[in-house]
Amino acid sequence: MVNYQTHLDSITADRLQGFFVGWPNPPRPETHLQILQGSSHVVLAIDREKPERPVVGFISAISDGILTAHIPLLEVLPLYQGRGIGRSLTRKMLTLLTDFYAVDLMCDDELIPFYERFAMQPAGGMIVRNYQNQSGDHRQQTTDFRTNSEV
Ligand SMILES: CC(C)(COP(=O)(O)OP(=O)(O)OC[C@H]1O[C@@H](n2cnc3c(N)ncnc32)[C@H](O)[C@@H]1OP(=O)(O)O)[C@@H](O)C(=O)NCCC(=O)NCCS
């Protein structure tokens, strides 16, 4: 039985195992937890039948709190895919973000049909990927990263 929650209470790194499948240089579970803590919104899918109550799927959003939100990450563990968990996570996140003007995400073309189910529309986009930073290990979490950047 999978349950969903929109908070990080009692979520520890050891409950975040196995994500970022296929990433050459994936974030560690500890870094994954920091990513979730730094997000404005999260929805987690949790397998309550396992004693360790692992997180088996998650979706995150970052937002300016007024007008716009971006959904950077959605993943369901391979063993749990095909059971409607990805659809539930996405639907719940879009409900959380329903008051925003713009809700954007980037995806591969093959996933466009998945997101079209939620009345999302395809649009163009531009990206930068600094692959040497993919693990996130180089960053220390700060309470306000805006004060920590030099341009
Ligand atoms: C995409 C992902 C989150 C879907 O999770 P899931 O729990 O397997 O999805 P669901 O079981 O809710 O599937 C819902 C529908 O979407 C379809 N779907 C699922 N994964 C898909 C994919 N990769 N491409 C296209 N369609 C997909 C399913 O076939 C299903 O259709 P159906 O209702 O007609 O059977 C999951 O495949 C995943 O974690 N992929 C790796 C990470 C990733 O690609 N994330 C998205 C980043 S933009």
List the helices and strands and how they pair.
Blueprint: E1 2-5, H1 29-37, E2 41-47, E3 55-63, E4 68-76, H2 85-96, E5 102-104, H3 112-116
Parallel strand pairs: 4-5
Antiparallel strand pairs: 1-2, 2-3, 3-4
Bound molecules: coenzyme A.
Describe the protein's architecture and organization.
With 151 residues, this protein is of the alpha+beta class. The chain has a single domain, classed as Aminopeptidase (3-Layer(aba) Sandwich), CATH 3.40.630.30. The chain has helices at residues 29-37, 85-96, 112-116, and strands at residues 2-5, 41-47, 55-63, 68-76, 102-104. Bound molecules: coenzyme A. Coenzyme A (COA) binds next to strand 4, helix 2 and helix 3.
Taken together, the total number of domains comes to 1
Strand content: 15-25%
What does the average pLDDT come to? Answer: 94
Secondary-structure content class: alpha+beta
- In CATH terms, the superfamily is Gcn5-related N-acetyltransferase (GNAT)
CATH architecture descriptor? 3-Layer(aba) Sandwich
Helical percent range?
10-25%
Strand order of the largest sheet: 1-2-3-4-5
Uncertain segments: none
Output the helix-strand order. EHEEEHEH
Question: Which molecules are bound besides the chains?
Answer: coenzyme A
The N- and C-terminal alpha carbons lie at a distance of 48 Å
Number of strands: 5
Gyration radius, in Å: 16 Å
The total of helices stands at 3
Characterize the overall form. Answer: globular
What's the level 1 CATH class? Alpha Beta
* Main sheet specs: 5 strands, mixed
The CATH topology turns out to be Aminopeptidase
